[in-house]
Amino acid sequence: MSEASAPAQDQLIEHYHREHLEETILAALRAAGKDIDALRPEDLAPVDQFHSGGREATIELAERAAITSDMVILDVGGGLGGPARTLAEMYGCRVTVLDLSESFCKAGAALTARVGLSDLVGFQHANALELPFDDASFNLVWTQHSTMNIADKAGLYAELYRVVRPGGRYAFHEILAGPHQPIHFPVPWAEHPAISALATDSETLQHLTEAGFREVVWTDGSATALQSMEQRVAAMQTQGPPALGLHVILGPVFGQMGPNLARNLREDRVRVVQGVVERLGESGG
User: Fold this and answer.
1) Considering the domain 6-279 in this protein, what is its CATH number?
2) Which end of the chain, N or C, is surrounded by fewer C-beta atoms within 10 Å?
3) pTM above 0.90, yes or no
């Protein structure tokens, strides 16, 4: 998960902290009929792809980012590591997941071991505004629904730019602010406004440009996200929650979060965007 400025950080940590997270997920997997001693990364997708569009959106972003096996990737705010495991399994690349939530890092590392990908996917408990890595350490930095809690967007993008190599890229799949505000709470990333920090399309592009990035791809996927969310909400309302889903992690409040996210999309209060930007520099243009 991502993080806010200092005054809201304790609230943010509380929002994402979960006791016995691995055990909770394994119990849900058993209830869904999964063999927890023979798990595959795709078995975890309903609970570890903590973003709209699920595993399919991760694969779509990976294709836009042109990932290859020789890449070293940093997934900022990568939570349980669903996207990281997907990238490692599909491409054979190495991925470091960085997250502010210690409980997510611990559970993510345990799940990664269960699917046999610990040699390619590692976890680092740290703050995205103070990345514990040397300059130019990664071919690609990656975020999926990880920036919505971070108020200091300029500081975030400056850090991402610092750790990506010249000619490297930043790939993102994020929720941005739409023209109609405020948004309806609770939503998956925040139960109240104090820990939500959405930026508009133009603000995001400005911050990225000022950090030194150059736009390569920018795609608005709001309509697709709305359709998917409305289908999920309708299914939960008529059939109840499935054995596996984000409600396993977020709890009963997800019954409000899901419909609110759909409403925010429908009313153009939020947008869902995928993009890829390139670091300018000595070999980046």
Assistant:
1) 3.40.50.150
2) C
3) yes
